[in-house]
Amino acid sequence: MSRLLITGASGYLGQRVAYFAQQTTIWDKVYSQTWRNPPTAGEHVACDLADQAQLEALLEQIQPTAIIHTAAVTPAMGPAMTDQALWAVNVQASATLARWAAQHQVRLVHVSSDAVWGGREAAYTESDVPAPIHPYGASKAAGEAVVAALDPQAAIARTSLLYGQNPLDPNTTMALAMLRGERHGVLFTDELRCPVFVEDVAQALIELAQKPSLYGIFHLVGPQILSRFELGQALLAWNGIDSTGLPAGTTTASGLRRPSRVVVDNRTTQSQLSTILRSIDDVTRR
Ligand SMILES: NC(=O)c1ccc[n+]([C@@H]2O[C@H](COP(=O)([O-])OP(=O)(O)OC[C@H]3O[C@@H](n4cnc5c(N)ncnc54)[C@H](OP(=O)(O)O)[C@@H]3O)[C@@H](O)[C@H]2O)c1
């Protein structure tokens, strides 16, 4: 009997992975692990990933035959994103999953982030070595390193700013709040990323989970480069909202130290997948 374990199934990405995984007949059973919030699809299994013994007990109990590891401590957690939580979940739990997967010859797809880089003019390829500049990025880079070391057969999938309508993504929600004056701040015109439709990433992760011949690093990002401000404009337009008055600014003026230009090349990954990682123009033109 085939059993898929999705970690972080209540998260923005994990919800969509669980939804699509349940639509397929690939796995006999889909287990959705969460911590504080319930999942919207799959059979719920609760586990605090910061507790290694709890995680090991969960793995022994459900004996997954494949794992898609989306759970992470992310900036969405605000002040709860402590160094200790970053280490316990993004590094230690990833190591536990990778060790278990390698020992049991179970397929592991580990989700990582473009936050492993600090920004530069040239695009980053799958073979570029991580060089993070903040604690979250450092924890994701360390997570990648332990997974690659403990389970060299794992797929490590880096993604970028995720967007979608069902449910509405955090970037649109933030732009909307700024536009309505409910939230202070600006959207940066000098912070560039390769945003990607959450449903394309979810489908690509499911594809990777089925293809153990694909291992190492993969770039699940969109092919279009947008600033945070341009992304805000595009997402508001997609949702039928006039973005006139959306506040713009620069990271330079803000004085914040953030990765500026993180352009991620997805061409090698795209050539290996049948799931198309679409541009925002293609997605929003539907
Ligand atoms: N969102 C983006 O734009 C983006 C960009 C690049 C990379 N990524 C990567 O994509 C993945 C998913 O991100 P996301 O934005 O979907 O995350 P998210 O919405 O912040 O959700 C995080 C998930 O991790 C779970 N989690 C956190 N701490 C946990 C703990 N101690 N024990 C068990 N579960 C825990 C949460 O469970 P509860 O809800 O139950 O607390 C939730 O399901 C992450 O690996 C992230 O690094 C995301």
Automatic annotation (TrEMBL):
<feature type="domain" description="RmlD-like substrate binding">
    <location>
        <begin position="3"/>
        <end position="278"/>
    </location>
</feature>
<dbReference type="InterPro" id="IPR005913">
    <property type="entry name" value="dTDP_dehydrorham_reduct"/>
</dbReference>
<dbReference type="Pfam" id="PF04321">
    <property type="entry name" value="RmlD_sub_bind"/>
</dbReference>
<dbReference type="InterPro" id="IPR029903">
    <property type="entry name" value="RmlD-like-bd"/>
</dbReference>
<protein>
    <recommendedName>
        <fullName>dTDP-4-dehydrorhamnose reductase</fullName>
        <ecNumber>1.1.1.133</ecNumber>
    </recommendedName>
</protein>
<keyword id="KW-0560">Oxidoreductase</keyword>
<dbReference type="InterPro" id="IPR036291">
    <property type="entry name" value="NAD(P)-bd_dom_sf"/>
</dbReference>
<comment type="similarity">
    <text>Belongs to the dTDP-4-dehydrorhamnose reductase family.</text>
</comment>
<comment type="pathway">
    <text>Carbohydrate biosynthesis; dTDP-L-rhamnose biosynthesis.</text>
</comment>
<keyword id="KW-0521">NADP</keyword>
<dbReference type="GO" id="GO:0019305">
    <property type="term" value="P:dTDP-rhamnose biosynthetic process"/>
</dbReference>
<comment type="function">
    <text>Catalyzes the reduction of dTDP-6-deoxy-L-lyxo-4-hexulose to yield dTDP-L-rhamnose.</text>
</comment>
<dbReference type="GO" id="GO:0008831">
    <property type="term" value="F:dTDP-4-dehydrorhamnose reductase activity"/>
</dbReference>
<dbReference type="GO" id="GO:0048270">
    <property type="term" value="F:methionine adenosyltransferase regulator activity"/>
</dbReference>
<dbReference type="GO" id="GO:0006556">
    <property type="term" value="P:S-adenosylmethionine biosynthetic process"/>
</dbReference>
<dbReference type="GO" id="GO:0048269">
    <property type="term" value="C:methionine adenosyltransferase complex"/>
</dbReference>
